[in-house]
Design brief:
The complex is a heterodimer of chains A (337) and B (484). Chain A is α/β, with parallel strands linked by helices. Chain A has ten helices and eleven strands. Classes of the chains: A alpha/beta (337), B alpha/beta (484).
């Protein structure tokens, strides 16, 4: 297991995305309508990412992301970069919509060009960073497969191409990488090959690897409901360091699974509900953490929101992060750490 | 001048159009209308669907800036249904004189009941509320139930085949979830606006029977929530669902914000249904003219002629008429020489009530009261492909209800709304869609096209299906599907 240095006990971070400002949504649309240039849009992104980094630092997070503000959504940003994935660019009405995409031949190995995003993040913060990418199971579910014999075969080949990118990211200094796989919960029957493709993705990548599994956050609402029980025991075969799960919205019932199965992973504990605008109190956060510490040692717990903050207004997201940090400090104090 | 025909009633349109053109030209020659006014004048010929409405034969609506300064535009609306040959000259003159006074003179022929304001905050909604609160009084006075006032004499919400199909569809959803081991232990269903409770009762009957035939044991898991803002209505609905009493809960809730009452069931409700609720929720309208957006402000009034007649008939002092209206709204019918006379006066006031209008530039209103879920930028997006000069409903209450209901839906849940929807913004060019009066209540078509646009941003696709169970029905069913 990769250990990150200089972090306090119960390190705090966001899952990946930060609040998408309304003005940035409009400017993305302006770009699609060809009313602003790519150069201007890139400058706008740089400015927005710097602001998101600053917000996270001021909120007191120990680990910082780029807020994923350059991404239209968690799928298109990656699929657009895959040579061999055909995109129908007329299929999108609103920037957040998914493109219709397909594969009609074997995917060639090529750089996805994510390293500059990481380097930009690394340049503008001195804190520990986390870089997130969408996993092969999720991407395979969004692509119309017209070549591979199965979804699993497509996911395995996506993983093969993405593995090169992960290695490049690790070489560039990304020592904490998170793989987002929200569709596991919608298609629990896929889990065995989902885990196989995940393992192929992270093979030989020298970084702490987390996998984030939630019940969906598309348009700020859940896509599925159920229990994390479906993950076990199959998920135990995943070659990752950390499982990042949502508990704030759904309650802590599934924490017992960690007692029952004793997984070797760290736990990324979701303590902030990102689907409501009401801001949690620090004490509510602390209570979530205390419950988790009944089943996991504090050394193996990271403190996070349930999912990305993409759909929250910026002021709400910021207030929630502050509450998360303050709640964590309460527990650290109780632990004497 | 532009003459717009907003309906397809050929004969009335042709006659009125000819007379309108002749009259306007004559008025200009006589100096009643300036040339620059003529150049910008837009005359709209409307066929008002509701025989009872808030319109006079001709109304002229001026554009204003928020500081009260008149703007350049003026729209004249003619209700072709009310036109009788030869009446237009007088009616045009009255309307133009009123519009040209810039609202500076107190109208002598009208008794205003409020200041200009958004339609949703108008006193007409207080009357609407009174109607539902004192429905029994109204029905006793008119001698007929409110359903009989509906077109077709009955609610489409009670159509047995439609209810049976709805129950069957829901059963299919549950079976699919069951097959995936995703059936929740409790299955929540919400009816917003329960009416007599008859629909809920029938729906549960059908579902129970299906469940029995197919031996699926879903019925005992159902939790039927009957929601209405009127406690009296909820009480009245109880007998209709008495056979399913163990599954039913009765909740007082605000139809514009079900989430407020039911936040604990966020993402838990499998099916939300309502019939003819949206068309009766507070609304407001905007007009797009010459590339700019105007907000329609209204002022309710009673024609002085009607005031005089009512005062004579009921022994009221004309200068106390506003107070009398207030007493009626408080339900103090007994103050008018007996309960029945008070209710009769209520009906007469409602029948006589009109709305005058003015248009205020939205850009002058920094605090423009857009309903939740909408702002100027989103409205501009919606209007991007819409007709250039037209008037549309914001359907504020319906929009708020819709947006405050969606978060209650389970990820596999759906919303069904039976109502009168404008499903395409182009339809606004072919008809006037309210407000109108239906018995003692207020009625507006619902801007379904706008709901559809807003829903997409909230992660739902909206579809409309004509209500095919009754020939001639104007109702359609809005239903949602999850947007991927």
């Amino acid at each position: 297991m990769t250990t990150l240095m200089n972090l306090p006990i119960l390190p705090t971070a966001i899952v990946g995305s930060y609040a998408m400002p309304g003005w940035l949504e409009r400017l993305k649309t302006e770009y699609f309508a060809r009313r602003i240039s790519r150069h201007d849009l890139d400058e706008i992104y740089d400015t927005a990412v710097k602001a998101a980094i600053k917000d996270q630092e001021i909120a007191g997070l120990d680990i910082v992301t780029d807020g994923e503000l350059r991404r239209d959504n968690m799928v298109d940003y990656f699929l657009e970069r895959f040579p061999g994935v055909q995109i129908d660019r007329s299929s999108k009405k609103f920037y957040y919509d998914f493109y219709d995409s397909s594969v009609q031949g074997k995917l060639p190995a090529a750089s996805l060009g994510l390293v500059p995003d990481f380097k930009f993040l690394h340049t503008f913060t001195e804190r520990q960073t986390k870089f997130s990418i969408t996993g092969p199971h999720c991407l395979a579910k969004r692509i119309r497969n017209q070549f591979y014999p199965s979804e699993e075969a497509l996911a395995m080949d996506l993983a093969r191409v993405m593995n090169l990118e992960l290695r490049a990211l690790a070489s560039a200094g990304a020592n904490y990488i998170q793989i987002d796989e929200p569709y596991y919960s919608g298609f629990p029957e896929d889990l065995p090959w989902g885990v196989r493709s995940l393992n192929a993705l992270v093979e030989g990548v020298d970084a702490k690897i987390a996998v984030h599994i939630c019940y969906g956050n598309r348009y700020g609402k859940p896509s599925w409901e159920g229990s994390y029980r479906y993950l076990f025991p199959t998920i135990l075969e995943a070659k990752v360091d950390q499982l990042t799960l949502e508990f704030a919205r759904r309650g802590g019932e599934d924490l017992d699974l960690f007692k029952e199965f004793k997984p070797p992973f760290e736990l990324g504990l979701g303590v902030i509900d990102v689907k409501i605008h009401e801001v949690e109190t620090p004490e509510m956060v602390a209570e979530h953490i205390r419950k988790a510490l009944c089943v996991m040692p504090a050394e193996k717990v990271y403190i996070l929101p349930d999912c990305g903050c993409f759909h929250l207004p910026r002021d709400v997201a910021f207030a929630k992060m502050k509450a998360m940090v303050e709640g964590t400090r309460i527990v650290r104090k109780e632990l004497g750490r | 001048m532009i003459l717009k025909l907003n309906h397809l009633q050929g004969q009335a349109a042709a006659t009125t159009a000819e007379e309108a053109i002749k009259t306007i030209c004559a008025l200009m020659e006589e100096g009643h209308l300036k040339k620059d006014q003529f150049a910008r004048l837009q005359i709209e010929l409307d066929w008002i669907q509701y025989k009872q409405n808030f319109r006079e034969v001709v109304i002229a609506t001026h554009g204003y800036r928020a500081n009260g300064e008149p703007g350049p535009i003026m729209d004249v609306h003619v209700d072709t249904r009310q036109v009788v040959p030869g009446c237009l000259r007088v009616e045009f003159l009255k309307a133009l004189a009123r519009a040209n006074s810039n609202g500076s003179q107190a109208p002598r022929d009208r008794l205003p009941l409020e200041d200009f304001r958004s339609l949703r905050h108008s006193i007409v909604w207080d009357f609407n509320k009174l109607y539902w609160a004192r429905l029994k009084d109204w029905e006793l006075s008119t001698g007929r139930g409110y359903e009989q006032a509906l077109p077709g004499g009955q609610s489409d919400g009670h159509n047995r085949q439609a209810i049976a199909d709805s129950a069957a569809e829901f059963w299919t959803l549950l079976r699919d979830l069951d097959n995936r081991n995703q059936l929740p232990p409790e299955i929540f269903i919400l009816e917003i606006g329960v009416g007599t409770g008859q629909r809920c009762g029938l729906w549960l009957d059908h579902f129970r029977e299906l469940d029995r035939q197919r031996q699926t044991r879903y019925y005992p898991k159902l939790r039927m929530l009957l929601g209405d803002y009127s406690l009296a209505t909820l009480e009245m609905s109880k007998p209709a669902v008495k056979d399913h009493a163990d599954l039913c809960s009765f909740l007082v809730l605000d139809a514009t914000n079900p989430l407020k009452t039911l936040a604990f069931l966020r993402y838990k409700i499998m099916h939300v249904h309502s019939t003819n609720v949206y068309d009766n929720l507070p609304d407001e309208e905007v007009v797009r003219r010459d590339g700019r957006i105007y907000f329609v402000q209204v002022r309710a009034y009673l024609p002085m002629q009607e005031v005089s007649r009512m005062c004579a008939g009921y022994g009221l002092a004309p200068d106390k008429m506003r107070q009398s209206v207030q007493r009626i709204l408080e339900g103090a019918f007994d103050d008018f020489g007996g309960h029945e006379r008070g209710v009769a006066l209520w009906r007469e006031i409602w029948k006589a009530m009109r709305l005058e209008e003015r248009l205020v530039l939205v850009e002058d209103l920094p605090d423009f009261p857009f309903p939740d879920g909408l702002d100027a930028a989103k409205l501009e997006d919606v209007l991007e492909k819409a007709p250039s000069d037209f008037r549309l409903h914001l359907s504020s209450g319906a929009l708020e209800s819709f947006l405050n209901t969606l978060p209650l839906l389970h990820p596999r849940g759906y919303l069904q709304v039976q109502d009168i929807f404008v499903t395409d913004l182009d339809q606004y060019r072919l008809g006037f869609y309210g407000p109108g009066k239906l018995d003692g209540s207020l009625l507006n078509w619902v801007n379904g096209a706008l709901l559809k646009e807003v829903a997409e941003r909230a992660g739902y696709d909206v579809h409309f299906a004509p209500f095919h169970y009754r020939k001639g029905s104007r109702t359609s069913t809005l239903y949602t599907t999850r947007r991927e």
